[in-house]
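Page 47, continued from p. 46.
Same chain as before, 88 aa.
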Amino acid sequence: MDDEAGVRQSVRASLSKAGYDVDEAEDPEAGTSLVKSGENLPALSAMVLDLNLPKINEIFVFPYFRSQFPSLPVIVSSGSKVLKRSAK
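Result:
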């Protein structure tokens, strides 16, 4: 789950090359629908989750998925840069 199509494509390519089937979602609403639909939940091995998603505070994304799918491993990623102020 990532809002950037390029990141989703890159993750899909890497995981597909490793032999995994990959479903993608651009936001938490789409991700929740995808996971809850059909036979997806029993077949899921893990979820790759971007912390910086639009429309939702990222602090709530991980706990929400952990509460809804407690046995599903979640790999948290972020492309954000952390800027530190240099000590003077």
